[in-house]
């Protein structure tokens, strides 16, 4: 029995009443209990939101960066102050353990803070002309209305990583969050409202992805679609955007290798490999998908991984001490099970399987598993598992392992563990990835550019001063002075 309706469509500074015949239920993935119903919007609401964003664009883009930054600062501050409550909402709808959720909210506020600072720094260029009587200026201009589409795995930070730079640059936005996790998006919009965001600058639509996407793709007022999600949907958006030569910026899936060399610090490698693989229960675009370990340290490292995994508590993310929550859906659990079955059929051996969880929990739980003897033909070694399955393969030769690590269409993140500086540079330079972590598995921070190459992304980076570039067009003003 659903008891509540939550307004989730926000257009031109107004929350639309929920039409009870068009709703969608949000469930807690740990208990499968309904949390609330939200509105299920479509083409019409999206068109209205785009109109509102379009009407708000001139005034917002003509404000000074300083004026925009004040609102972003305030939003960042409000978010940080409310991190615990926002974290609880995030955990309820998404499942991740509360400390991770609160950490995500603080990180999300960090993006707003960073772009509050960047808002005043949209520098242009003065180009010395080859003609004596000409002057050439390059002026950055906000691109216009932006359609932002985000996934469920980081329901807070994936939004502010897009909206922070978009708003700082002077763009207005129509946001479509994931249907699994609209509640964090609603809270973020309320924070913007409280921070004094003018009506129409940020608009929110929940509902029919296909219809919302189609309107964003075909409506000429939308100048850029910024998308984070699967490579399959990213390809679809890229194809459809071609009709209008609409700009799309894509942050897509990954298949990150970790390479542990013979000189790696074993304790550090084991702790960080576990943190990378099992953060958000493996549902992270940059989480380790496969571990290559040098034959000489394989037994010792595997034993440490087993010990660490078996010490992790599984359960509801709201319970004290839980490090592994549920997965997002039944389909996600089935995918992990299918990858594990395929690996076992092809000769993998289970090294460790996590603890049991509270039997009363009816949610999408899945035992975390480490397997060894992984071979290149296993599905888990090639496809994004997006769940708690960690395959290990041994290697002996540096060149050979680099070749294996690069043998994928993905190119988001890769990690190496070594204490050798020359090897660090040699290997990091040869890995075909947008990001390489060296004894580090957390490259996502507000001040640095995040993004993939190959089929893991296209368009610009998110984060850092680079993150503003996607939202600014460079206009040339060529002036004859004679
Ligand atoms: P997804 O299925 O591609 O969905 C992402 C978003 O796109 C959702 O809001 C979804 O809404 C929407 N969508 C789906 N079809 C659409 C369409 N035809 N038009 C418009 N919007 C559409 O991905 P996901 O399962 O939510 O997220 C997991 C994926 O995201 C993984 O592959 C992960 O690696 C990737 N990811 C990448 C990064 C990065 O920075 N590179 C970060 C986080 C996650 P519906 O669910 O309603 O269809």
What is this structure, in a nutshell?
Helices cover 37% and strands 21% of the residues. It is an alpha/beta fold and 482 residues long.
Give an account of the 3D structure.
- By secondary structure, the protein is an alpha/beta fold.
- The longest helix has 21 residues.
- Strands 15-16-17-14-13-18-19 form a 7-stranded mixed beta sheet, with helices on both faces. It has a 6-stranded mixed beta sheet with strand order 10-9-8-11-12-20, with helices on both faces.
- It is globular.
- Helix 1 packs across helix 7.
- It folds into 2 domains: 272 residues, Aldehyde Dehydrogenase, Chain A, domain 1, CATH 3.40.605.10; 190 residues, 3-Layer(aba) Sandwich (Aldehyde Dehydrogenase, Chain A, domain 2), CATH 3.40.309.
- The mean pLDDT is 97.
- The chain has 13 helices and 21 strands.
- NADP nicotinamide-adenine-dinucleotide phosphate binds next to helix 7 and helix 8.
Features:
alpha/beta; Aldehyde Dehydrogenase, Chain A, domain 1; Aldehyde Dehydrogenase, Chain A, domain 2; 2 domains; 7-stranded mixed beta sheet; 6-stranded mixed beta sheet; 37% helix; globular; binds NADP nicotinamide-adenine-dinucleotide phosphate
Can you tell me the overall shape? globular
Distance between the first and last residues' Cα: 77 Å
How much of the residues is beta strand, in percent? 15-25%
- Spans where pLDDT lies below 50 across 5 or more residues: none
Mean pLDDT: 97
Instruction: Determine the CATH topology of the largest domain.
Output: Aldehyde Dehydrogenase, Chain A, domain 1
The value of Rg in angstroms is: 23 Å
The tally of domains stands at 2
CATH superfamily of the largest domain: Aldehyde Dehydrogenase, Chain A, domain 1
Structural class: alpha/beta
DSSP summary: helix tally: 13
Percent helix range: 25-40%
* Hetero compounds: NADP nicotinamide-adenine-dinucleotide phosphate
Strand order in the sheet with the most strands: 15-16-17-14-13-18-19
Q: What's the total number of strands?
A: 21
